[in-house]
Amino acid sequence: MELAEILTFGNFTMGFIGLLVGILFGAIPGMTATMAIAVFLPLTYAYSLVTSLFLLLGMYVGGISGGLIPAILINIPGTPSSITTCFDGHPMTLRGEGERALKIGITSSLVGGLISLGCLALFTPLLAQLAINFSAVEKFLVIIFAMTIIAALSKGDMLLSIFMGFFGVLVALMGTFDDNNKLRLVPYIFRRELIYGFALLPVLIGLFALGQMFEEAEGGMKKKTVKDANAQKQGGRKFSFLDFKGQFVNLLRSSLLGTLIGVMPGVGGSAACIVAYSQAKTFSKTPEKFGTGHVEGLVASESANNGLTGGALIPLLSMGIPGDSTTAVLVGAFALQGLQIGPLFIQEHHVLWTTVLIALLFCNIMMFVTMFFPIKYIAKVIYIPRQRLYPIILLMCIVGAYRASNGVMFDVWSLIIFGLMGYLFAKFKLPSTPFLIGFILGGDLEKYFVDALKGNDGALSIFFTRGPICWVLWLLIAGSIAYSFYFNKKQAPLDGD
Amino acid sequence: MDSFFKLEVQYSTSHLFFPKIVIGILVVLAVIMAVKYALARARGKQPLVSRNWSFFVKDADFFMLFGSLGLFILYILALKPLGFLVSSLIFIFLFNLLFCRTFKLKSVFISLIISVISCVLVWYLFSVVFNISLP
Q: What residue spans define the domains of chain B?
């Protein structure tokens, strides 16, 4: 019964369309999977959540995978998660082994995706089981832990990341407080428009699509595809599955590292591939070959960034905390259909949980099939001019923002506010992912904090005396702060200015 | 001692309770960051704002940057009086012209085709097929 609802031709078609759109966004430098999902969210309004999930997860997988094409062919990562793919992928292209590099990358991506899918299926129910018994106190601490972990892994900018996270919380608090129905933090002239605060969708689209467009406009939208000639070079070694001989441990380690980094909230794909790449180099017998077109490096980078996909979904589906910016946008998809994700998600919406697993499996396999064989032709997408795509994206932005809360013009205006904010964030190197995660979790953070205090006559001691889970969470919070202090100290001399 | 660790949540002002805490945290963090930054600069004998720092990138395309912002604002303003389809047709075409920065006949023609196809498709999909109202 359940499966009959999921395994329909229409759903698979949507998954495939999502995949193609994702590959397109991933492969064009300056456009990302996050942007694809944010822009296409309004489309899901017309579909059931099952069908929407196929479309959006297709974009997620496609967007992460598509990034390897320009990384390998023109030495520009299509998405931040393929930065390290450039290091060994592009030198291979220069040797005339472009196609081989692409096929190795695609196969590694498939393995990474499948391993992380296994972790998702295994660990999400366990984590949700644990989280079901959480009271307001533990829920509050989990969110605080999520915010400190974002900070701990944001190399050297710990304070800034925490600041941005709380800034996101503050913006989320604008509007009416449910307990006593009073308005706060809202300028008097906007008291009507902001009665419920800012809607999630304009914030997402503004930050990740419009902000990016302003940046590109400032740069003049010049063509990035310059080193074209090298991509055409032929005659190097051809791909064979024997290339993966001896890569088993590397594949497994990199995929698991990618998954693990995906689980940590707010830590993006760039961290996943960089960590996996440097670990592969450390454990390698031939570390000196890294950066010269070495298969090992390519395998590590690509399996790690696809490992991210399943990992980032684990905290989202078990506790409602998004693992990266793309899954944060997925929160928007659920919200659009009036669904809040939390520990009860798997129990109460079993169909959707099965859908996520099947859709991810399907999209990973389809990604391999559609990219592996016709890769020569798929690779051409990197030559689509961005000047022609951005106007269409703008059109979708308008539709998306307008539909956010059933046709409110103010949401379209908030699009501009957050578009400019995204642009300014990039200018001052302020991380936008902690801001977004703070914004998404801000309302809950307040609710749990106030509830916990009210349940205990306002005594703060409740946060320490609730039980062993509390203590573990405090240990984790302290650990992540200590780690970042230690790491900051160690990093400081390297950073220079 | 016990009362020190108590925070009373008054019903009438409970809407301001948590925002105050968040603002407090933000101010403290901002001060710490500012002091750290100033100290680091002073230690390195550098001025507070480095001389070669500029807000815009080198060779910034101001026409395109402010043009796209202006067009976007005009687009939103035009949505109500002109309706979604008409205003989108006009502005998506203008955005195409702005981003391509050329008036060659072929380019203008492509812009026209892109704007007509994308706008009509989106409009048809949303308001006819999905029956979702647009501005």
A: 13-49, 62-129
Interhelix angle A468-495/A136-152, rounded to 10 degrees, is 10
Residues 456-475, chain A, touching B (beta carbon < 8 A): 457-461
Domain-located, residue A379 = yes
In chain B, positions 61-120, which contact chain A (CB-CB < 8 Å)? Answer: 61-62, 64-65, 67-69, 72-73, 75-76, 79-80, 88, 92, 95-96, 99-101, 110, 114-115, 118-119
Per-residue pLDDT tens digits of chain A, which is 497 residues long: 578 888 899 999 999 999 999 999 888 887 888 888 888 887 787 788 899 999 999 999 999 999 999 889 888 888 888 889 999 998 998 888 888 999 999 999 999 999 999 999 999 999 999 888 888 899 899 888 888 877 776 665 778 888 999 999 999 999 888 888 888 888 888 888 888 888 888 888 888 889 888 988 888 877 655 555 455 556 677 888 888 888 899 999 999 999 998 888 767 677 888 889 988 988 888 888 888 889 999 999 999 999 999 999 999 999 888 888 888 888 888 888 888 888 899 999 999 999 999 999 999 999 999 999 888 888 888 888 888 888 988 998 888 888 777 778 888 999 999 999 999 998 888 888 889 888 988 988 999 999 888 888 878 888 888 888 889 899 988 988 888 777 666 554 433 33
Six-digit token pair at B27?
């101010």
Is residue A188 assigned to a domain? no
Write out the H or E segment, with its range, that includes residue A156: none
Q: What residue ranges in chain B does DSSP mark as E strands?
A: none
**A169–B contact, CB cutoff 8 A:** yes
Decide if A331 is inside a domain. yes
Inspect the interface and report whether the beta carbons of B96 and A391 lie closer than 8 Å: yes
Provide the domain limits for residue A388. Answer: 2-135+200-211+223-420
The count of structural domains within chain A is 1
- Token couple for B36: 């750290």
Q: What burial letters (b/e) apply to A433-445, b meaning 16+ CB within 10 Å?
A: bbbbbbbbbbbbb
Note whether B37 contacts A: Cβ–Cβ < 8 A: no
B28 at the A interface (CB within 8 A)?
no
Write out the two tokens for A462.
């409740």
- Rg for chain A, CA atoms, rounded: 22
Q: What distance in Å separates the CA atoms of residue A92 and residue A362, rounded to the nearest whole number?
A: 30
Report phi then psi at A278, rounded to 5.
-70, -30
ipTM (interface pTM): 0.90
pTM score, whole prediction: 0.85
Query: Is there a domain that residue A444 lies in?
Result: no
